[in-house]
Structure formats: C-alpha cells, structure tokens
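Objective 1b: paired records.
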Amino acid sequence: MKRTVLPFLTSKFVAKTYLSARSIFVLQIFIGLLISYSSCSPEEGLPQVGTSPESEGSAPILPPPEADYDEAEYKWGFADTTGRLAISGRFDEVRPFTKEGLALVRENGRWYFIDPQGQQIGQNWRTAWPYSEGLARVQSDQDSFGFVNTEGQLIIPATYLSAGDFAEGHAWIRTEAGYGLIDNSGQIVIEPQYEKLSDLSNGRLVFKQKEKYGLRNLQKVLIEPQYDRLTDDGDLLRAKQDKRHGYLSPDGRWLIEPAYQIATPFADDRAAVLLNGQWQLIDQSGKNYLKDEYQQVYSAGEGLWIVESNGQYGAIDTNGQLIIPLEYEEIQPFSSGLAVFSQDGLWGYLRPDGSQAFPPEFGLAWPFKDNLARVATRQGFVMIDKSGALKVRPLYRELRDFGEMGLVPVQLYR
C-alpha cells in the first residue's frame, strides 16, 4: 500500500506578517484624515484636527491591547504523562511549564501565568514571556517592560522601552539613552549607552557602538568596537571585517584571519566555512578536512556534520568521511542520540551510525527530548518513547513537547 503524508501537515515553517488591530485602527484614522484633507475646497480652508465641536479636547480612542490577538477556534490545555487532560482546554495560546512550576497562557487577549492546578498566578499582561532564572519579562498596557517573580509580583518595575530575559543573573534593558544591563534586583550594572547589547554569556557581552561591535565584561571593555559583526561562541569569537568572517581569541587576537563568506561556530573541533563559493570543514589552525564538494554543511552533533549534495542529505565525520549515505530528503541535528530524517515524504529517526531507529512512517516528527518525541500518525498526534511505546494517545488536535511538571500542551478538537 502506498504511504501518504497527512494533507494538513508540512515540514516547512511559514512565517506570517500582519498588522495588529491597534495598528490597523491608527492607519484607518490616518487615511481618513488624508481623505478629509484632499476633499476640502479652497473656500472651506484646511481642516484643523481636534477643533470641531464634536472632537474638541478629545483624541481618537484606540482599541484595547487585547484586540491584537484573535480568539483561537481550537483551545489549548495541558495533559499529563498518561495523556489525561489535567488542565482544561480554555486557553487561546500556551507555553510549556518551566522549572519554576509555572506556564504562560493567553486567554481573552491577555497573558498570565498558571500553576500545575491551572490557577492564575499574579495579574494579566498585554504580553509576557516564559520564566528565565526565576524572573519573567512582562509588557504593560503602556508598552513598557519589567519583570515579575514566581509569585507574580512586579519586583522590577515596568519602566523600560524593551528588555531581554535573564541570563547569568543579568538582563539587558533599553531606555532613551540606549542599551544597558541590570542585575536580578533591578540595579543598573552597565549604564544604558549602547546601540545594542547581547545576553550575558561566559561573563561577557557583545555590544554595538557607533555602528561597530566590540566585547566587554561587567567591569570593562575587552575588545574595542571595530567589527561589522561579532559573536561570542565561548572559546572563540566569530568576527566579520571588510565583508569577510574569521575567528578571534577572547582577548581579540586573530586565530584564523577573516577570509570566509560564511563561518559557523566550532563544534567537535571543527567549523564549516564558505571560501570562494566552496564549503570547507576546518580545525582551529584553518586546515580543511572536506574531501568532496557539498551545497550545505552544518553540525549534526555526535561528532557528525550534515552535508547536502543535489538535494540529497547525509552525514560525514570530522575527517570528512561519509558515515550516513546521501539518500535522504532532510536530516536534522541529533537530539538525545537520534536524528529526525525524511525519506519518500515521510519521517523517521536515525542513529549516529546511520542505522534507522524508526523507519520513515510518520507524517511529521520532532526531535527527542528527555526520551520522548512527538510524531504525527494517520490517527493524529501522539508522543512516543525511544522504544516506540505510545505515551500520549491520539486524542488531541495538536500537542507540543513536554515541559516541566510532567505536563504537555495539547490542543483540543472542541
């Protein structure tokens, strides 16, 4: 029997750009004013906004922030490890539970946090983000940003134009003066002054000043801003200068001169670089280990690199030896020791030696996480373990990866 892919499933992520209800409303007002202006006769004179008897002293009333979000036709809830619905499906959108024991949900156009019993923690917000290091970023109706603790209390006031999540005890914030850094008590650690500022990583931050990128720690500048791009990968930095990429030491010395059109992070002591239109797999001395030409090269984990030639995917080891034959339509990086692959329009899982842990039999498949993976079958979305045992039955329209607290987001049919 010929196997067919479920018609409503696709492996491609489609990004959709749209105007919010508030933006559309403002645009309608602007267009209306233009029409009024163009329709006035010379004798009538130019219209004066806000001076008519009906509108004197008033301003256009914008829709509430919650109008930015549509109500979902199919609601979301949470199921436990047996697949039983543990939190009723009443939400328009959800995020998985984090290690803080809370999940972010949206209902009636507002965002708030719930505990494993489905009870609301704290107030609701125009927008919010999942917890990171015990604090969650929130946006007020005045468009300002602050942070709440796990009790839902706003402990860092919403006074910033924008903000990032906490990393290594710090978060970047933006004010009228620029980007700066605060600690988890809300104290300013780096005064707002930069055009951009990265998350803190390895005790360092990439910053942008006068259109160039540099590196600093919490106390001082380590590398003056002089690069067109700069990425801190830990042991090495990737830098772009004069339209070419190379690799720097953390103290700013060139270890591999900028010669490449593209340069990836090092993994398993190798990096993929594009030189004069050809991919290479180099070590930290710049030596190339790639024996053949490929159209794509990227890290797979498990000491392997995924390669593509004429639309066929396989994998090589760090010496360029082909380990997984070029016979797949797609291969994704390894996760929990298995890699998702596509063949003949269906999806399965590969081991690092190239053998198939699961043959291509799923309409879609996602990477394993903590010994569990979600897959799409002809019966619907299910969760399986590495033995293939069914962990969540096809009871739901859609489901996502398990979060903390043993709960998985599920979308109900009705």
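Objective 1b, second protein:
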Amino acid sequence: MTLIDAIILGVIQGLTEFLPVSSSGHLVLGQEVLGVLHGKNITFEVFVHFGTLLSIIAIFYKDIAEVFRSLLKGIIKPSGIGLLLKNDSHFRLAVLIVLATIPAGFVGIVGKSGIEQAFTNVTFVGVMLLITGTVLFLTKFAKPQPDKEVGWLSAFIIGCAQALAILPGISRAGMTISSVLFLGVSREQAARFSFLLAIPAIFGATLLETFELTTEPIDGSFIWVLIVGSIAAFISGYIAIKTIFFVLKKDTFSYFSFYCLAVGLIVIILS
C-alpha cells in the first residue's frame, strides 16, 4: 500500500463513516479498485478507525466529558442511580447509548464469520447500497418534532438499526439517523445521538481488529502509511460530521439516497 492509497482509503473511511453512504461498503469497493486485498491490511483498518474516532471526540468532547462525569456519579453512589436517570440528562444519555449498543455487539459476535464473507462479495455490497438508498429516500416523509428526544424503546430500535449496518453497504450513520427521524425525534438530536452512539461501535470494532493483528513487527515504511491514513480519516471525518449537521438543518438528508442508489446500481451492473 502506497501513501497515495493510504490517503485515498483514509479519506473514504472518514467521509463514509459519518456520511450516510456506508464506510464498509466503500472500503470494499475502494480496495477492489486500488487492488488492495481486504483482510490483508487489518493494521491499516485499526488506525483509520481510530482516526475517525478522534474526529467524533474532537467535536463532542464536552458531551463526552459530561457523560463520563455523570457515569462516575452513578459508580460512586449506586443508590442514587434512580435520581440520576430522572434528573441528569447526560447520565440518561449514557444508559441509552449502552442500551442501543447491545444489538450491534450481539450481532457482531454471533455473526462474525458470515459477515466477513459478505466483505468479499462486491455484488452483495451493491444490493445493500440500494437498501441504504431506499431508507434514506424515505426519510423525506419523516416528521421529526423539535422537542422530542430519544427514549428507552426508541434507543433499542436505533440499536437494532445500527446492528444491520454491520453488513457492508448498509450505512451505520444512514440507518441510525434515519431511524431516529422516523421515530419523530428532532433532527439535531438525531445527529447527536447517532454520532455519540458511534463511539462504542467504532471503539469496539477497533478493539476486535486490534486482537487480530499479527505479532510480527510493522515495517518502518508502513508506519508512515498508517500515520497518513489516520490523519486523512480524522480530517475527512471531522468535515463529514459538520456536513451532516448542516444537511439535516437544511432538510436535505434524503438527497444522499440518489448517490447510494446510483453507486449500488453501477456496482451490480459492473460486477
């Protein structure tokens, strides 16, 4: 893998991790075009995932700090958890994120072997992109309410939507934000919850990939590939998050559907 390959794949990872077009699907397609075999660059995937994780932290560091502060309160005084759930919005947010993370964690562990096979099937990625595009188009008819927030049932439903995004071609951001909008939650809350929910999802995926790293030393020249790819993923991820907030504010989120549908059809035809 060259530095140019690293920049291209890093940018693809960063943009598509948060734009509703499927990062996993685009990485499969990008590696196919560049001739980089999937499964041979687990180390690179770990680093670019870490880059996108840093982009979320850079934007939501205040929320993250408040969530950890609230969680620490609950750990120090378990008897006060009931009051925290009622009065502390950040503690409630933390619990909702944990609840929404369970479905994806379960699917990731139980269906790991089948999911890995899906990453080698380009046609499958094309079909999943069509599904993503259809869901995004339907958000055009969603009726989000400015004052509605994520609740217990809606958090679990959003978590199930995120679990589907383990498949290449199904967008995590697309499925989670769309499901929040369908549930009537405000657009700003939809984006905020989706991106904060991405933290344990990306962190978990990065840990799983880290466990698969070989014990062989990394070649010195490849270290620069990892650094450059991570930086590219961080910068493009930061831009993508800001873009989503802008798009949701303008009520043009469904426009991404045309891109997914077009790419899906092209992939199916060419494969």
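Residues 114 and 218 are 29 Å apart (CA to CA). The first helix runs from residue 3 to 18.
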